[in-house]
Structures are given as C-alpha cells and as structure tokens.
Amino acid sequence: MRFTSLVIELIRARPKLVVWLVVVLQAMLWLLVSLLVYRSPPGDLATVIALGREYRVGTDLGPPLAFWLADIAFRAAGNHVFGVYLLAQICSISTFWTLYLLARATVGVQQAVLAVLLTMTVLAFSAPGLEFGPLVLARPIWALLLLHSWQLIGQNRRNAWFAWSIEAGLLLLTTSAAIILLALVVGFALTTARGRRTLMSFDALFALLVIAVLSLPYLIWLIRADVPVIPHWPAVADLGGRAVHGVELLGGLLLASLGIAIVSTFNSGWFDRTQEEAPVIFRPPVDPAARDFVYFFAFAPALAGCLISGLYDLDRVVGGAGIVLLMSGLAVIVACGDLIYLRRQQILRTAWAAMILAPALGVIVATLFVPWTASSEVVTSLPATAIGHFFDDSFERRTNRRLSAVSGDAQLATLISLSPTRPHLFLAATPERTPWLNLDRFNQTGGVVVWRASDTDGTPPPDIAKLFPGLAPEVPQTFDRLVDGRQPSLRIGWAVVRPKVP
C-alpha cells in the first residue's frame, strides 16, 4: 500500500508554508538556546557591538554596516544583546526565503522546498547561529544579489537593476570579500550571451553609479587609513604550505556539506527492498542557462575562496562558509533530475531534524559539561550583565559620574562596554583598533581598568601596570559563571582612573 506523509503533501500543496515553518522554527530554536545558556555574547559579537557604538565609517574588522546594525539592534532591545540575536535570526530567515525564491525560479516550487531543506543542513554546521557580524549580514544580501542577477541574466527583467545595484553597494559596505563576489557575478555574465547583453545596457551604468555612491565613504576611509586591501604576496618557499592550507579549508567545506551526503544516502534506492512506490516531487525541465548559473555559484565561490585564503594564509574561507555553500543544496537538486523520489520518509525526517538540532544541542552540552571535563573556559558562561552593572555602579559611587570608558583585559573590557552606561572601549595594548580614545584622553575622562586577578591582592599584571602606571587596585570582585565546574572562580581585579577636574 502506498503511503505519503503529511510533510510530502504539504510540500506539494503548501510549499511556502513548509519553508516558513522550518526556517522560523530553526530561528526560535537558536533564540531559545540564547535564553537558556548564553550569559555573554558568543565569539566576537561583543566586539562588534562595541565598535558599532562608535559609528565609524570603517574598522580593522572591515566595512561598517554590520557594526552599525548591531548597535541599533542592541539599543532597540533596551541595551540587551537579545536584540542582536534576533537580528541574526532575521538574517537567517531572509537568507532561506530568498534562496527559496531563487530556487523556485530555476527548479520550480516543489523542488525549491527541497533545496532549502538541504541547504539548512549545510549552514547548520558551517554558519554561526547567533554570532551576528559581517559574515551573517552578508548572507541575505548575497542571496538577494544572486536572485536579482538571475532575473537580469536569465529572465531579462530590467526592473531588477535598481535592487541589484543597492544590494551590491550594501555588500561592499558589509564584507571585504564583496569585490571577489561581485567579480564572480560579472565574470559569469561575461561568459554568456545573455549576460553580455545585460552588461552592455545603459542600466548597468546607472547601477555602477549607485554602487559608487553607496561605497564611496568606506573607500575614502580606506584611502585615509592606509589600510592594505590586498595582503602581501607570499614567498615562493611558503607556497607549498599555503597550498596544503587551502586544501584543508576545502576539506572543511566538504565536511560541512556531509549532511547532504547523509540525506542522499538514506534516500537512495540502492538498498530499497520494499515494493512500495515512493512519492515523487516533480519539476518542469530546467533551463540550461539556469543549470549553468546554479552550478557556477555553487562551486566558484568555494574554490575561489579556498584558493585566496590558502594563498594568503587566512583563517577562514574568503566570504565565509555560509556564503560559499549557499547554493550547494540547490545544485544537488538540479543534479537530481526532473523527478525526485523520496524514499524512507520517516528516516529522512529523523535524519534531517537531527542535523538541524545537533549544533544547538552541542552548544548546550558544551556549556553544561565542558567546565567539568576541561580547563578551557566557555566564553558564553561569563555573567556579562552582572559584571557590567557592578563596574557601572562602582565607578559612579566613587566619582559621582557615569562610567565613560573601560580598558585593560580586552575580553573583560569588551563585556563591560555593553553595560547600561555604554562606556567607550579602549584597547590600550592595541590602541590603533580603538582610535576614538588614546591614553591621554582616557586619563582625562577617567574610567575603569580591569584584569583577571590570580589572588586576593588584585595586583595588576605587568603589561597593564606598564600601560597604566600608578594604578591603585581595588579589592578584586568574584563572579559566578553559569557553570563553574572544575574551573577557579572568576576573579576580576580592577582600578578606577578618576577623571581630571576641568
């Protein structure tokens, strides 16, 4: 007897509903994780918010748009980082919905849902869930740029030029990899007759003007700051090691795509001994130009990113795994043919759900159990709110002024910069990263200097004592992590630099 699950029927009858359900539920999952186990921001998120508070046109971490939006979301949530978590999930939902629209234009409505589901298994392991920043913001912008690129090249829709130009400008204001990504789009257009006709139109000139206007402030900042856009070419002797590094990055991308291989294996007909006819997801024949478009942007960004990152010895793939793997699920769907049989439906649902849940469950397990089994500290377990409130109140009680600046240990100072008074962050060890303050101005306006204390005396470490001579340490303050485990107590030494009377 033939059996078709409710999920399959929903994909056939209500594909939009299925897409909205899965992407919103995934977003709610990560927001729940933040409420349960995050006491401080993950990764570099605190730094992103602290730099965004200054509204600089550019920073050493790249273009400014993600930093500005992070500060806006933080303020809109009442100076609570949950607003930035919510912004990250809005970016995730926008990315998958735009991918669905692009897939619908190339493989039809029903198979577009499958493309989104496959891509979710890839990005679940390769893209940050809550760590908002340039890599997260660039994903929906890149997805929109691809959608409108296909509308221009494949569908000859001239009205897409305006949106395309805006997205290209915003991408340049979001990530340093934008130039490479835009070069890939232009390169693909030049390889096709449709694309060359599109680029030869007058609309392309107007789009170029819009892009120049949007990116001009950041370009001026780059010139004035004398920031090298292209790293130095490596020595010939280093090329072998760099090539190995590039292959390792490519291997990491393949590992992140393992979810697609697992789902495809479960769905294969190699070991199907039943006689039941599997339900079919149908699509109209794919336009050869659409096939080329999907394959190109599924492979070219990943290969180019690994090549450049390997050549210049970068830590991660240029553009981020979330961008270079964005089209991987759609590419698999295109390769599967006009008829896709869905076998072992219960196993497929279970495997897919497990891959979506695994990263979130991994975060929870690591937060609760790593402190008991390892000496490494779980960054998100630090009580950022309690730390910020303590130093806000302590400075105001001693000086009768609001805390205006914080320095010392970079990690602790960055967390305190998120406190309700929003003090300026001053990284005294690397002052070029915080050009809005210098040592003289910090001593003039006053602030708090913090460090990790190893004893109850609270003596500052030599590097901080050298940067801030004459510090009078206060009694160190102890804070409880979410889970202390076998780790020593979090003891923070601190000193107040009193503001100079004008």
From TrEMBL:
Molecular function as annotated in GO: pentosyltransferase activity
GO CC, alphabetical: plasma membrane
GO biological processes: lipopolysaccharide biosynthetic process
Top-level taxon of origin: Bacteria
InterPro entries, alphabetized: LipidA_mod_glycosyltrf_83, RgtA/B/C-like
Transmembrane segments annotated in the record for this chain: 17-38, 82-102, 114-142, 162-190, 202-223, 243-263, 293-312, 318-340, 352-372
Annotated Glycosyltransferase RgtA/B/C/D-like domain residues: 63-221
Main location: membrane
Membrane topology type: Multi-pass membrane protein
Keywords from the named record: Cell membrane, Glycosyltransferase, Membrane, Transferase, Transmembrane, Transmembrane helix
Localization (cell): Cell membrane
PANTHER family linked to this entry: BLL5595 PROTEIN, MANNOSYLTRANSFERASE YKCB-RELATED
Protein name in UniProt: Dolichyl-phosphate-mannose-protein mannosyltransferase
Organism expressing this protein natively: Bradyrhizobium erythrophlei
